[in-house]
Amino acid sequence: MFQLGKQPTNNDKKIVDQLRSLGIDMIDTAKSGHPGIVLGAAPIIYTLYAKHLMINPKDPNWINRDRFVMSAGHGSALLYATLFLAGYKITLEDLKAFRSMDSITPGHPEYKTTPGVDMSTGPLGQGFASAVGMAIAEVYLKNQLKKKIIDYHTYVLCGDGDLMEGISYEAASLAGVLGLNHLIVLYDSNHVSLDAETNVTFTENIKDRFTAMGWNYINVSDGEDIEALNRAIDQAKAEENKPTLIEVNTIIGKYSKNQGTAKAHGTPLDEEDLKQVKEKLDIWDIPFTVSNDAVTEFQRQIEERVDAYYKNWQTKKENLDEESKEKLDLLEKGTYEIKLKDFSYDFPEDLMESTRDASGKVLNEIKNQCDFFLGGSADLATSNKSYLKESGDFSKDNPMGRNIRYGVREHAMGAISNGLALVGLRPFASTFLVFSDYLKPAIRMSALMNLPVLYIFTHDSISVGEDGPTHQPVEQLIALRSTPNLEVFRPADVNEVIGSYKTIFRKKEGPSAIILGRNKVPIQNETKASEVEKGAYIVRMEEGQLHGIIVATGEELSIAIDAATRLKEQGYSLRVISMPSIERFRKEPKEYQEELFPMTVKTFVIEASSSYSWHSFVYNERYLITVNNFGMSAKREDIMKRYHMDVESVIKKIKEML
Amino acid sequence: MFQLGKQPTNNDKKIVDQLRSLGIDMIDTAKSGHPGIVLGAAPIIYTLYAKHLMINPKDPNWINRDRFVMSAGHGSALLYATLFLAGYKITLEDLKAFRSMDSITPGHPEYKTTPGVDMSTGPLGQGFASAVGMAIAEVYLKNQLKKKIIDYHTYVLCGDGDLMEGISYEAASLAGVLGLNHLIVLYDSNHVSLDAETNVTFTENIKDRFTAMGWNYINVSDGEDIEALNRAIDQAKAEENKPTLIEVNTIIGKYSKNQGTAKAHGTPLDEEDLKQVKEKLDIWDIPFTVSNDAVTEFQRQIEERVDAYYKNWQTKKENLDEESKEKLDLLEKGTYEIKLKDFSYDFPEDLMESTRDASGKVLNEIKNQCDFFLGGSADLATSNKSYLKESGDFSKDNPMGRNIRYGVREHAMGAISNGLALVGLRPFASTFLVFSDYLKPAIRMSALMNLPVLYIFTHDSISVGEDGPTHQPVEQLIALRSTPNLEVFRPADVNEVIGSYKTIFRKKEGPSAIILGRNKVPIQNETKASEVEKGAYIVRMEEGQLHGIIVATGEELSIAIDAATRLKEQGYSLRVISMPSIERFRKEPKEYQEELFPMTVKTFVIEASSSYSWHSFVYNERYLITVNNFGMSAKREDIMKRYHMDVESVIKKIKEML
Fold first, then answer.
1. Most distant CA pair in chain A: distance in Å?
2. Whether pTM exceeds 0.95
3. Which residues does chain A have with pLDDT short of 70?
4. What domains are there in chain A, each with its CATH number?
């Protein structure tokens, strides 16, 4: 059926149509999926893989590969068909198992599930924004390691939906500031989204908008024109100072009877439509028909382009200096732990220090111990105490800068951090805890991909004070704690801050959030850095008979200890447990958990945050000294009193119930 | 000290400086706040209030007032000083109590706390985006009510931070599509944000970006030039087809020794600086010095401009037709309940219907019963079943359209809904539950302001199926339930869907979220619409001795009922409780709660979502049949089995533990 013609463009067309037919067969077999992008954007992805991407399907994790992010994650069928044809370890059986249980071809691309998939996508805008992180990582690593051993391009395929999302705007704006010329976004511009045509929702002049943000803009007016696509990508690669957006005008669901309409987006073609599309494509109407010629020709193009470059890169790698080699090893390992050397601080015993200040010192130590540690704040570094001193700001002129000035762009910050981590760096992202809401969708992506991103959230409760309820988190802690794979730490003082960071950096995978306060609290004699990894430990043992247990975290630990001391004087013997991480504690052996919490002992919890985190630790919610309403604007001390979170109120409440 | 000069511009300058001095006095007294914007943007807010805003300080809730949104909420001191001077019910004592407990002058503007404050702001970008909602409401109401009885402008003061946030981009893009010419944004462009100058973060060409989005753009190059500001606002008001952005070049912290730098942003001036600023302003260095002349002249300008217009409006109101008058009454009340008349559906007893489908029918009934009910989806109306049939799409050409095509802009959708509600409408906003993360910061604003926004979230658990983990919510329900003031409903079938909506519309205040499934489930004989308002009720009574209780919500209720039926056959007598709303149930009298849950009876909970919602209902978390990991891409049935959420697994687990 398939014959290689004389004209290269003919071959191109045949392979593109092969991708189309495989894609719609997958969707038809799964009885769900998105044929619109498969039929519309096949020429784009084909041109990219056949003629540009520096990849090696036999070495899918090659550290210097060009990255490809399918930001329009619902185009998974098209991506899998392409990866299959390109020679990645994906079989025709895998394509047939599209969207079925335990297949390597799930409904949306999943990182680490499918070879060749550089990140999980699906929630729109995330891919675009994380690609900006990959592009930043490339610039940073190109300069961290010698000989341009890292020197790749990051490509994105995105749709109208991606560009409507605020996160992609934020990321694009920053990419423009940073002049990330190795970032090339292919915009599948089909003027249709799920519900309707974009003339009712999205009428921007994309060229002007991206040009205004410092981007290079290229238009390919006919999305079927492989030569034009090819030229556009060549032009983009030649651009030295700016990221490039290539707007490709395509027709959604091309060849389907619904082509060009919203109906073509997300419903499998009906039988008749499938048949007539196959006819137009000149491909047998037998599901999963594959042309050997198409496979051979596609893979030939990739090999011809990449082989020598790949071998040359291996040679370059062998001749790398020791330091660069070591760093490259780490990157190639992908996941690695960082054993932080001991920190020591000289501080007076009566030092009062906020945990954010303590964190600031520790971050600056970590920076000295790990070259892959970098990050930034959403315009709050000064308040988050998260600036890495003497490390400079990352910019085109200072590519070794390790402070990324994200601007007031929390959401993009989260997604960019994911991109940095996907390349092997250990990024941090910081803002106020209450604004963790702004980047939650990106945190979820960290968690889904199990990436070692460190989130630093300061200003952690109603104790923020005067800035008032819009700035005082209440429900954010439980939102983070309930996110699978994310470990949350809320340290009480400098000892626990150190312990939290040590625990976090020992982890090879998975995101962490550290929750810090802005108020000066005493350093506790009883807190221990080494105990944090267990999630909870006894900081004050009862003397004699145990009357009750007080659990506390963060700034509230000092209240718990004060209360226990005062209650002791009144004849009540209480045990105080610090629980910087519920998630860690839950992973401890049952025996340890029971040792800390003997059955039938009354347990009180003090945390200036939603009760929901703590119901499982108490028999009755009356034992929870927590905050379930919005805060208020006033001095910290006044607020704590009003919310019955001051020492006096705590003592009173515990005495009532003992 | 203050003397009215001959030149009006001199008077202007004097009043502007009066605002400045009051603002910095407030911050100095509170020992916290943001002097940068007070000193930099005073001429902007002055020009607006003195020469343009159609407001009546004696009738701050006047329904046809021009709206003013201080999107840069940290400029609260400037706003309060302006409102004081304009004659709102704010005393000098109130200004002195800035940021202190129970004052009406909190750290960031709070809706319903301070007369003249049209919305709570602080989290950047929210104000800008909600203003778009206010502007949409104006267009809608102008056409819903006769005689242009609603015919106001919406003004925004925003800063660099607002414009960097993705939410403001989303909202601006939509405002451009909709051609909201009564929306006028004043952009305090000072090139400085908290951490640094914007040349390292925000280098966009704002003119080109906004023009590309269909906005009218005007530049005022000298932010001290009242005449130029005045002319720019006049020009903006004359624009008939587009929203306007007026970029005003200002100097942050003007007159301070730190002027023009990030240091001027968020720290009170030191004593010496305060003193020299006062000198430059030519105002006595006695805190809270107020010039009578300034007050008189400011209020004279407002009265001269507004008085006749306001009186004329009252006359117009008296002569309004009955229907318009009724509607206006409702709007003027501000909060009102909507008693939905009975719905009745003919459906066969064995009907299988998804709750999203049931919801779609009910929404279309509500539409017929309430003209103020309107809303939209973030490009998922087709999947959310939230399209109001025969009501058309809202647009410039169809201002009575009640479907707002938000595009893929969840965050702006939430904030715009807040704006609609602030004017008195009853908006809904819909998307997939997993994407509620994208708009959580806006949901929080609904909750903080206690606005009756209805959030419709479909595709509510791992049962989404093939789309996989990026599309399957796990932690979203607890994130919503833990948000103060927000009531969450997860109905089990059409009966409970009806009951949920009835309960929601009877509420005068406060946001609600309804959580819906995409899978066909049986209509239960035992569910009752009328019971939903209690939050929980018995759907299946035990027979004889009570062995245990099963609580379930949403799609899982049918699993619970099936399991109870089958366990009954095996000799176990179980009570089944449906709990569509935990928050409602918690508000019920203790007796009712204890009637449903007798002490010492084993309680099991079935909900395909995070355990955290349910710990307080069980003695041991082993009794929770919930989901605490990310989902997967597969058929629904396969997933439910894998996660032990199918009937067989549930029966097995309960039997083991009884």
1. 96
2. yes
3. 1-9
4. 8-309 (3.40.50.970), 352-522 (3.40.50.970), 532-657 (3.40.50.920)
